Amino acid sequence: MLQRMSEHECPVKLTVDIIGGKWKTLILYFLKGGPQRTGALQQRIIGISKKMLTQQLREMQRDGLIERKDYGEVPPRVEYSLTHHGETLKPILELMAAWGAEHRRRYDRTSNHKHHGNSMVNAKPPF
Fold first, then answer.
1. Nearest to residue 80, comparing CAs of 127, 39, 124, 22?
2. Exposed, middle or buried: residue 82 (CB in 10 Å: 0-12, 13-18, 19+)?
3. Contact 81/69 with Cβ under 8 angstroms?
4. Minimal CB count within 10 Å: which of 18, 60, 61, 123?
5. What is the largest CA-CA distance in the chain?
């Protein structure tokens, strides 16, 4: 028998609230391969503006998923990486990548599913 739960009790809802949206999972996916500079992330994720990338990075930093390391150099050098808490998302990201690879043909951009596909990513996976 299915158990009823409120929106606040649902663990999937919490996960989607924290890492959902158009950009966060892509950012996390590339950070799982190691520290990245803002410019590198922006090059790898096609279509994300600098303003949106900065906003998403700040939100994930606030949520404790990533950390920002400022080297205090001129010109500025800043890197982002997963925190220990963010590392706990690696299995989810790997499962999402495997599912996407397995079902890519079904949602190919050449079909009528224009919102799907791999058009937002400009690089090979980090694993």
1. 39
2. buried
3. yes
4. 123
5. 61
Alpha carbon 16 to chain centroid, angstroms: 12
Tokens, residue 81:
């990486």
Distance (Å, rounded) from C-alpha 92 to C-alpha 101?
14
CATH of domain 13-107: 1.10.10.10
The residue to which tokens 């999972």 are assigned: 25
* 3-class state of residue 35 by DSSP: coil
**Strand, helix or coil at 105?**
helix
Where is average pLDDT lowest: 2-11, 27-36, 100-109? 2-11
Tokens of 77: 């050098």
The tens digit of pLDDT for each residue in 20-33 reads 999 999 999 999 99
